[in-house]
Write a structure and sequence with these properties.
There is one protein chain. The radius of gyration is 21 Å and the shape is globular. The chain is built from twelve helices and ten strands. Helix 4 packs across helix 6, helix 4 runs parallel beside helix 7 and helix 7 runs parallel beside helix 8. By secondary structure, it is α/β, with parallel strands linked by helices. 35% of the residues lie in helices and 22% in strands. Bound molecules: adenosine-5'-diphosphate (ADP) and magnesium ion. Adenosine-5'-diphosphate binds next to helix 2.
Length: 274
């Protein structure tokens, strides 16, 4: 009798899957995530495992629940059900290891704030509400701005910057937190080519440092060059895995339905039938 059969017998013959070998702990695991703003769920029973040290794209049509999934994972919106684990720990214990860059369009840019203050706001968890800003906080913020090529803009008003520059500042705010897991919502939306290159550079550096990156991504043509893994989402999880196997014409068709022309899919030069 094999050990698996033995376990089956010990369990009274119930169909028990043989123990899977424990893999590396995921940077973030989601189980049964359901969020509903009204009657219809925005995401329904989504399971996902985001690998450590990998860059994962979350892909799906408008309204698929991509932003909702990130917000639910961060406890920004309440969930009907679901469990989040970050490096194997419950969210409450691991929140400090996560940094979030919201969708740029969702931020009020008229708020009069200097760039350096926006970045230091990312440190509030460390500072506490009444904590004093000290020299090393300012240094961390300035260093983060340097990493995104915005060192010279520290004292400008955030509202006066271009979209691409604002996006870099928000990335700097996440970097200043020295997190292990970075969640970004459409970081390349509406930014110039130089900013896109600068951001991807920073993200790839994070990866080489063993950090994990999860980004909602809208541009299907750059998925293969930017990302290691994908999660295709349309309210439910449609597919998940390495780009090579999970990002196919079949999974794209299943995710986008008629909204993605066969010609567009063909341009991506993927495997699978259209
Ligand atoms: P995506 O980021 O994939 O475009 P979202 O997560 O923003 O999708 O939205 C998913 C669905 O939930 C959409 O139908 C959207 O209209 C709805 N939704 C998102 N945020 C809210 C909200 N705050 N209140 C009500 N409905 C919302
Ligand atoms: Mg969104």
């Amino acid at each position: 009798m094999t050990p698996a059969e033995l376990k089956l017998a010990a369990d009274g013959g119930r169909a028990v899957a043989p123990e899977a070998k424990p893999g590396p702990v995921a940077a973030m695991s989601l189980r049964g995530m359901t969020v509903s703003y009204g009657e219809k769920p925005a995401i329904f029973s989504v399971d996902a495992d985001f690998e450590q040290g990998a860059m994962t794209a979350i892909i799906g049509p408008n309204g698929a629940g991509k932003s909702t999934l990130l917000k639910a994972a961060l406890d920004i919106v309440p969930r009907v059900s679901g469990e989040v684990r970050v490096h194997g720990q419950p969210l409450e214990r691991a929140r400090g290891r996560m940094a979030y860059v919201p969708q740029r369009a969702s931020v009020d840019w008229d708020f009069p704030t200097r760039v350096i203050d926006v970045v230091m706001m990312g440190l509030y968890r460390e500072l506490g509400l009444l904590g004093r800003i000290r020299g090393h906080h300012r240094d961390a913020a300035q260093d983060a701005l340097d990493r995104v090529g915005m060192a010279d803009f520290a004292h400008r008003q955030i509202g006066q910057l271009s979209g691409g520059q604002q996006q870099r500042v928000f990335l700097a705010r996440a970097l200043a937190q020295a997190a292990d897991l970075y969640l970004l919502d459409e970081p390349f939306a509406g930014v110039d080519a130089a900013t896109e290159a600068a951001i991807i550079d920073v993200l790839k550096t994070l990866k080489t440092e063993g950090k994990s990156v999860v980004a909602v991504h809208h541009d299907l043509t750059t998925v293969q060059s930017y990302f290691d893994r994908v999660l295709l989402l349309n309210v439910r999880r449609i597919a998940e895995g390495p780009v090579r196997t999970a990002f196919t014409s079949d999974t794209l068709a299943a995710t986008y339905g008629g909204r993605l022309a066969a010609a567009q899919i063909e341009q991506l030069e993927l495997g699978g039938a259209v």
